[in-house]
Amino acid sequence: MPERTFLTAEWRDVALLNYEIAPDVLRPCVPVGTELDLWGGRCFVSVVGFRFLKTRLMGAPVPFHSNFLEVNLRFYVRREIEGEVRRGVVFIKEIVPRRAIAWVARVVYNENYVALPMRHAVDDTSARYEWRLDGAWNGLALAGLGDWHVADPASEAAFITEHYWGYAVQRDGSTLEYQVEHPRWRVAQATGAELSCDVGRLYGNEFARALSRKPASAFLADGSAIVVRRGRRLPVGEV
Q1: Tens of pLDDT along 23-47?
Q2: How many domains does the chain have?
Q3: For residue 214, what is the domain's CATH number?
Q4: Which of 52, 186, 208, 226 could be disulfide-bonded to 182 (CB atoms 3.0-4.6 Å)?
């Protein structure tokens, strides 16, 4: 039986820049009870920007905080329990424009949220998400978007977008697991992509090498309504 609903919203105009990275960089960040999830033997991190819309916490709207932007750096893990494979994401850092949102995420899930000024622009052929850090605008951008299609289940795009669990390391070292529900998304591949930011300052020097390269892939997903279930700590016997 699914856990009770914690949050409902819409995630729209999801821009994803995906980079291959050495697994050893991520292993210190892997939550207990999970392992790195690889695609074709390759390990990925993604810089993701999107619009967070119509947000409701436990069924109630959040005044002045229902619509906002988010940019995050994430990687991919998996967990097997009783023959079921749960494929999930782990966040390195998440940027939002409002302090109250960052505070709730840190308290409830111990996620590494920060609040910074943000802006965005999306049209039929491009998408850009930006944040202001140390007085300068940083950002990610997609250009030359192609036709919309549902990703082939065996494709890299499907691997990136179809992880339906979240895992977060807690202050005591345990792991919080939560389920995220949404339908499959349509994607539009980009012919051009750019990440312009001080990677070491924002994410740590260990990510600078991977994120300074050209992304392995970049695309925009249309997004959908989503449901985030309440989290549960993994019992000792399940890790």
Answers
A1: 999 999 999 999 999 999 999 999 9
A2: 1
A3: 2.40.400.10
A4: 226
